[in-house]
Amino acid sequence: MFDNLSDKLDRAFKVLKGQGSITEINVAETMKEVRKALLDADVNYKTAKAFTDTVKEKALGMNVLTSVSPGQLMIKITNDELTALMGGQTEELELKQNPTIILIAGLNGAGKTTFSGKLANYLKTKKGKKPLLIAGDVYRPAAIEQLKVLGEQIDVPVFADLNSKDPIGIAQAGIAQAKQNGNNVIIIDTAGRLAIDEQMMNEIAAVKASTNPHEILFVVDSMTGQDAVNTAKAFNNRLDFTGAVLTKLDGDTRGGAALSIKSVVNKPIKFIGTGEKMDAIDVFYPDRMASRILGMGDVVSLVERAQMQFDEKEAAELQKKIRKNKFDFNDFLSQLNQIKKMGNIKDLMGMIPGVGKAMKDVDIDDNAFKGIEAIIQSMTNQERENPELINTSRRNRIAKGSGRDLTEVNRLLKQFEDMRKMMKMFSNPATAAKMMRNMP
Ligand code: GDP
Fold first, then answer.
1. 110 lines ligand 1 (CB under 6 A)
2. Residue 344 is labelled as binding a ligand
3. Residue 64 has what pLDDT?
4. Measuring CA to CA, which residue among 262, 338, 350 is closest to residue 302?
5. Cβ neighbours of residue 49 under 8 Å, at least 6 residues apart?
6. What string of DSSP letters covers 78-99?
7. Where does GTP bind (predicted)?
8. Measured between alpha carbons, how far is 371 from 323 in angstroms, rounded to an integer?
9. Which of 94-98, 199-203, 317-321, 413-417 has the lowest mean pLDDT?
10. How far does the centroid of ligand 1 lie from the alpha carbon of residue 50, in Å?
11. Complex confidence, ipTM
């Protein structure tokens, strides 16, 4: 699903790789790539433009977190906006009425009959309903037969009248039977056409007028791209449907329909179809879909956790200390704790794209941290604040106290000193810029 789009978005975010901050220029460049990816996926031009403009604006106004990279932050913002684009929240079916009447509409081949069966099965098994299916496709006897077969398969009654060519009469008779038999949900399958056609629209509008459905679900093949959106517009103008159903998302779809429908017709996607079998139906969750499209759900949760932990005041304090070369072992320890709060190290590393797979079999244990912690905890407070005091005899004492090797203590002190030097250098913008220029 959406493999192409996912790959292209992945490439777009590579623009930010190695960049230390989010700037007007690198955001613009990334968004140019994102927009191209969306257009290639058949997303409507206006939708794609509005989308990238919003992401850009949000990115430039965002706090920069020390613990995540600009690329990761941008992925998170893009993810949130994709979710919003697809409607934000999941919209449930309105099932309070008894009986609830659901009208199914769409072009031929979109998957209406299949979806009618899937929906009946879903309502029966997941919602404890007692549905009745009405076969309203009077032009295709095969469609009526198909619905009957599906009904048998899922053990849901099907109302059909092979001798009638009057969809309104069939719907009315079906509803009467449902009421008599105590069916609390009625799903009416209808006839489609190969393309938008006035007669079909009139007919389904008449069925709507005579049955007063509580839900009108517009079924559309997600593989049809821009056409899906145009068809949605035409059906919505005529029927004012309550929700869309995207079928065939198991195929090699480019994703444009999923991304544009909500913003173009302002109707939620309520279900997706992911196969021909009766259980291949899913409630549509915009957030899950966004993370599937980006293929970076893990980065998103990484940034979320970092945002949760981020304390602006503390960060400012830390910056000040670094500038004055006063970053000490106490600060280091509290940074370690911050990282630990975000979760287990292996999980965190695994969330970085590309690293996850590579790390699968590597055994990093959180004990690496424990060693460092033990060493720092064996220092006196004076030593933590002034690491330069730690001479050979103090090193030996710390090693003994922490139960770690002297070489480990030496390594940590060396790493800490190097880190301090780096931090100091980078905290001075002029030096940092000079260093960057000298980099290959
Ligand atoms: P209708 O003309 O709108 O009633 O469409 P049908 O329900 O007859 O479906 C048309 C074809 O699409 C059939 O071969 C279905 O098996 C197939 N189909 C429907 N939904 C899906 C889906 O979600 N995934 C896949 N792969 N095929 C589907």
1. yes
2. no
3. 62
4. 350
5. 35
6. HHHHHHHHTTSS-------SSS
7. 106-113, 189-193, 247-250
8. 28
9. 317-321
10. 33
11. 0.99
Tell me what pLDDT residue 301 has.
Answer: 65
SS3 134: strand
- Ligand 1, atom nearest to 219 Cα: 3
State the distance from the centre of ligand 1 to the C-alpha of 5, rounded, in angstroms: 24
Query: Can you give the pTM of this predicted structure?
Result: 0.71
What letter does residue 387 receive in the DSSP assignment? Answer: G
Kindly give the pairing relationship between strand 185-190 and strand 215-221.
unpaired
3-state secondary structure of 377: helix
How remote is the CA of residue 129 from the centroid of ligand 1, in Å? 24
Alpha carbon 103 to its chain's center: 29
Helix (H, G, I), strand (E, B) or coil at 429: helix
159 phi/psi in degrees, rounded to 5: -95, 125
Q: Side by side, which strands form the sheet with 131-136?
A: 158-159, 131-136, 185-190, 100-106, 215-221, 243-247, 269-273, 281-283
Half-sphere exposure of 54 toward its Cβ, with a 13 Å CA cutoff? Answer: 15
CA atoms within 13 A on the CB side of 105: 32
Question: Quick one: how many helices (H) and strands (E) in the chain?
Answer: 21, 8
CA angle 120, 125, 130 (to 5 degrees): 55
Domains and CATH numbers, the chain: 3-89 (1.20.120.140), 100-284 (3.40.50.300), 311-438 (1.10.260.30)
Ligand 1 centroid, distance to 214 Cα (angstroms)? 24
Residue 370: the pLDDT is 81
Q: How far is CA 98 from CA 155, 210, 283, in A?
A: 20, 17, 22
Q: Is any atom of ligand 1 closer than 6 Å to the C-beta of 231?
A: no
The length of the chain is 440
Judge if the upstream peptide bond of residue 131 is cis by omega within 30 degrees of 0: no
Q: Which two three-digit tokens encode residue 50?
A: 């509005």
Q: Is 121's C-beta closer than 6 angstroms to any atom of ligand 1?
A: no
Distance CA 188, CA 170 (A): 10
- In the chain the first and final C-alpha atoms are separated, in Å, by 39
